[in-house]
Write a structure and sequence with these properties.
0% strand, mainly alpha
Amino acid sequence: MIHDTIVAFAGLGVAGQAIVASFILVGLLALAGLRGPVRALRRALWGYELWAGFVVAALATGGSLFFSEIAGFVPCDLCWFQRICMYPLSLLLLFAAFHGDYRFARYLLAFPLVGSCVSVYHLLVENQVVSEPTACKIGGAGCAVKWINEFGYMTIPTLALTGFLLLIGFLSLAAAGAAEEPATLPAGA
């Protein structure tokens, strides 16, 4: 059961990476002057950006708790810093989405921005591109331990980075929408 759940989270990570890639493509097209894809993305998500962000944050929070409490993987120091950036988003995005408070999204962006930097650093440590900090070795399992390695690359910091990048995309769309339009749901929602 534990391995099946790990594979399910890894599969969600791959799906999330496909969404992140499409966000990047749409952003690059917008930088090139093609605003049509951005408008289409805004229309498709309008009113649901915060809810989508809540789902991502809730899945990431649930996944990290699964890894530590059920699978028995000991979180390293860098994992704790990533959790510090993710866990509050689960509640804050739920409240913001429930109240339709899209202006609040710009303030929440700091969490996934910092979290993604920690995730990138964790990936560099995990893949031995940079040396493991001494503090990581004190608490037992070091930061370079790969508890999972699905599909040849999907590790826990990779999942965290995917979640943070998704949140940056959804929160950016919500914040941009708050500046352009009133914070109301689309007709018929």
